[in-house]
Amino acid sequence: MLYDRVLNVSPDTADDPGRDRFLLSKGHGPMAFYAVLAAKGFLDPAVLDGWTTFGSPLGQHPDRVLVPGVEIGSGSLGHGLGLGVGTALGLRAQHRTTPRVFVLVGDGELDEGSNHEAIALAGRLCVPNLTVIAVDNGSASHGWPGGIARRFEVEGWHATTVDGRDHDQLYAALTARHDSPNAVVATIREA
Amino acid sequence: MRETFVDTVSTALDHDPRLAVVTADISRDAFAPAHARHPHRVLNVGIREQAMIGVAGGLALTGLRPVVHSYTPFLVERPFEQIKLDLGHQDVGAVLVSIGGSYDDPVWGRTHQGPADVALLDTLPGWTVHVPGHPDEVAALLPAALAGDGRVYLRLSTRHNATAHPATGRFTVVREGHRGTVLAVGPTLGNVLAATEGQDVTVLYASTVRPFDHRGLRAAGHTDVVLVEPYLAGTSAHEVATAFDDVAHRLRAIGVRRDREVRAYGTATEHDVLHGLDAAGIAKTIREFLR
């Protein structure tokens, strides 16, 4: 969805300061990410076969220095959102109002306190070019009473909860423009 | 030193669109005029130190040069994983500027003391570490730090030496002698000079400790070395060992003690005595070492 229909980025614009950025904060899910990057031409598909082997640029957590198209190195949880807020603020400081910043986090990852610093800060500083995709697969040990969207809303975000497998719902939520940062809670439940 | 830092950076913001300042309430008011002129490049994140470093990393990813400032333990210790990952692992640069030294104002107790800062940063590759001993050295060190791309730590203190020395990145020979070398780092120089008065030793001064001037230490001509640092004792011991890795040498390290947690308030001068960083304590250690 993101790379097909939403993000304005390509291998030719991977270093363009005006590009959209996708930050995979929950870095433990890179296999699909690598496959998409290969399908979109950011990296040679032949590299995929070496995944996690010594000398391969592709590990269990992505490294921006090693993999073209990867915006941040991630793995330790709770870092992508702070970086995403800074990236969005950096673009604003340079008067770049078009590029958008998307950060994908997990519901379990939201337990990290660093995320709550970043969520509150983004709401206060009002960075509308920032969108968080929170994959809610019910993996947070103690859950989110009232729902994850509420956690963002109280900090001044626009928040929408969608079926994480419904492409049309996702597309509508991810492309909507708001005056505040945008949270899209993508619910994934086993059938 | 803080005034020099704020003035220098505030002026630089007017001329360099690449610069941005990130604070976490500490010194917020000092940067208020700069914030009024550059509201999108002078950012106060509130008391959110993890976000402070994360935001700095994000700013750097867009090509800006973040200057991040807070009290020593809140700048280095609390968000240490962010320093490691949001700056180092992302391979982006920033200028981190602390105030408070190890125990500049001990009335606040252990929570506001940060003697482990340089030792912690020493576990990460690629950091330049400046420990100025005079406000004029701050003014001399900052322009290159602001203009660069690397990761720089500038350790400010309310304590300083009587005079400034050239901030060249190399060790400065302050006094020459025959029995050994005393290397004074940053604000310790005043007490070191008082301690070595009348002693036949060479005194070197360092306002930059990473990279460490191995050649300068060897050029002093002695393999008996007393290292006087205003943070954890022996923080630079491995650098001294590297400087003399092919010759026998002796080292005595003076700094903030590691053997127990200090639970005391009072003044920085009183804490100097407790750590053996006062002139009398340094003199005693040197005499015993070179006996």
UniProtKB/TrEMBL annotation, chain A:
MF terms in GO: magnesium ion binding; transketolase activity
Domain Transketolase N-terminal: 2-176
Gene3D superfamilies to which the protein is assigned, alphabetical: 3.40.50.970
EC number, UniProt record: 2.2.1.1
Pfam family, one: Transketolase_N
This protein's UniProt keywords: Transferase
Domain of life: Bacteria
UniProt cross-references to SUPFAM superfamilies, sorted A to Z: Thiamin diphosphate-binding fold (THDP-binding)
PANTHER family found in the cross-reference section: TRANSKETOLASE, TRANSKETOLASE N-TERMINAL SECTION-RELATED
Protein name: Transketolase
Species the sequence originates in: Actinophytocola algeriensis
